[in-house]
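Students often ask what a holo structure prediction actually looks like on paper. The answer is less mysterious than it sounds. You provide the chain, you provide the ligand, and the output is a string of discrete structure tokens encoding the 3D arrangement of the protein together with adenosine monophosphate.
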Amino acid sequence: MSLLCIGTLAYDTIETPTDRRERSLGGSATYFCVASASFAKPRLVGVVGTDFADEDRQLLIDKQVDVEGLEVAEGETFTWGGRYEADWNTRHTLFTNLNVFEHFDPKVPDSYKDSRFVFLANAHPAIQLKALLQVEKPEFVVADTMNLWIDIALDDLKALLQNIDGLILNDEEARMLTGEANLILAAKAVLTMGPKYVILKKGEHGAFLMSENVHFSLPAFPVTQVVDPTGAGDSFAGGFMGEIARAGNIEPGTLRRAMVAGTATASFCVQGFSLEDIGSRTDAQIEARIQQLLEIVTV
Ligand code: AMP
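The corresponding structure tokens follow.
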């Protein structure tokens, strides 16, 4: 079933405790699309500058991502820099240069307007909402956000929350948005702000999904060699929404399987810099990891 994603395509500068990479391919929509491509054929809405490399565009096309909605604007592609501390869970943003994203006016192509499942990957909440309102009859809309937008665009974010079904956020963002230190209370507080579903990610400690009638919790897949956690959240969302789009419904069982798909998919992302690991995985390898994860959590 049709899956639409709007978000950023970026060149990232990443510093880990042991390594540093400049201008590696990143962006919330890039990770989401590559990750969800194992489950569905994602449709991408985003913008890049004239510096965006042909090989990076080709990577998306090779993954069967529909790039009709990828605009090329005069100027430079969005760039972001992040530094991880030794515990991998603490990340500092070093810089965010919106570049062509600053004046991005998202246009959902006519051929995408019938999309049933929509993921609003991390981006300015006003841009997320503007794109969403162009989709005719979305059935299940999930958004991601980030501390930057909670800080500088809270009113836009609150307006967005009235128009979506689910919100994905990490522990730090959940505390920041709700003021609740306890993550269960924070999730419940999000459910009073608009969305009917909240997915709360806790890094290496896994993730849980909460709604009025479903509460499902999963540990992370035990990865022994973390190389670069950038994009793990977007890859989780890719597996999660990809599985929902594949199933074509949001029954409680589908949501649980989607949590497993997201967790398994994200575990590949952290094993390499940029999209090096996750971009090279076959559907069979992802399925095998889903089965391994199920073995780990089943009694
Ligand atoms: P994640 O590690 O899943 O939170 O996603 C990291 C990706 O998000 C990086 O590749 C960045 O290029 C992108 N990113 C960082 N900051 C922002 C932002 N403020 N808005 C949209 N995308 C961002």
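Residues 3-297 form a domain with the UDP-N-acetylmuramoyl-L-alanine:D-glutamate ligase fold (CATH 3.40.1190.20).
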